[in-house]
Amino acid sequence: MGLKPATWLLLFVGLVSLLPSCTAAQIKTTDTRWGFHLPLPSGVTGAESLAFDAKGQGPYAGVSDGRVLKWGGSAVGWTTFAYNANYRKIPLCTANVAPSEETESMCGRPLGLQFHAKTGDLYIADAYLGLMRVGPDGGEAEVLATAADGVPFHFVNGLDVDQATGDVYFTDSSTTYPRRFNTEIMMNADATGRLLKYDARTKGVTVLKAGLPYPNGVAVSRDGAHVVVAHTVPCQAFRYWISGAKAGQYELLADLPGYPDNVRRDGKGGYWVALNQEKQRLDAAPAAAPAKHLVGVRLDADGVEIEELTAAKGVTLSDVAERKGQLWLGSVELEYVGLVA
Length: 341
Fold this sequence. Notes:
Elements (H helix, E strand, L loop, with lengths): L4 H14 L9 E4 L4 E4 L10 E2 L8 E3 L5 E4 L6 E6 L1 H5 L1 H5 L4 H8 L2 E7 L4 E6 L3 E5 L4 E2 L1 E4 L1 E2 L2 E2 L3 E6 L6 E5 L9 H6 L5 E6 L6 E8 L2 E6 L5 E6 L4 E6 L8 E6 L2 E8 L5 E8 L1 H4 L10 E6 L5 E6 L8 E5 L2 E5 L5 E5 L1
Parallel strand pairs: 1-25, 6-10
Antiparallel strand pairs: 2-28, 3-4, 4-5, 5-6, 7-8, 8-9, 9-11, 12-13, 14-15, 15-16, 16-17, 18-19, 19-20, 20-21, 22-23, 23-24, 24-25, 26-27, 27-28
């Protein structure tokens, strides 16, 4: 006897439920090992953050001796674009006779970088010297802020600019430990970091959120409604709502497969998150090490992972900057800037 249509429908639904889900997002893997390398000048390392100006020139990169360099193409190479006052005043900064770890508290260490396209100004998050800015022609950068609410900055880190307002969002990773002792932040579960805003109109700094565990990279959403903040520990990304019904709220966006550094908008409304280390690398035995080495992930606008970047063992990333379909890769540890075309 034939089955009734309703019975067929029930059987069909039951069978479909047993099949693997076809709606689950497929995570694309991009291997960065075959990319190009742009060596940094001799004696400097660590292009921690990358930026491009309104004309598309660059990348610009903050390096270990306190300068911001500009890439002018293979014919020109790297040239000095910006520096702080100490770089020219203190001979030790240019002598290259001591490890940068021992001189950066004096010579500065530029981390987060971003241009304001309308003015051409480059904003610099210097770990030791504070929030800084240099004009479109480069030169000596000026210090805009070194404290907020009477509390000095100890570790200025990530930074992004709201292109519509010119306001700058940035992080002070700890009010206890400077960059040189960043591992202490993790070992002691320090949660004194802050998310801050520099108002381009009033020139004042506001603390948007305090008591944060190791806030690092920052990215303003494409619509300007919120700011994404990467927390190196505990391997998460949050978003702070700037406007709308949720204004002022701080909510989890994504759990991450590693310890994040900088966050950048991609070309599709989502975000690239650079990973300095995988979660397993700090606590897993060598035999349990993952088959692939993750150095970055792409999240969609809702925080869902849709792409991952892999690299050779020993490679770490601090920044993934997408430009015209190409990925520019910065690392606080390496002697080159990577490019995946």
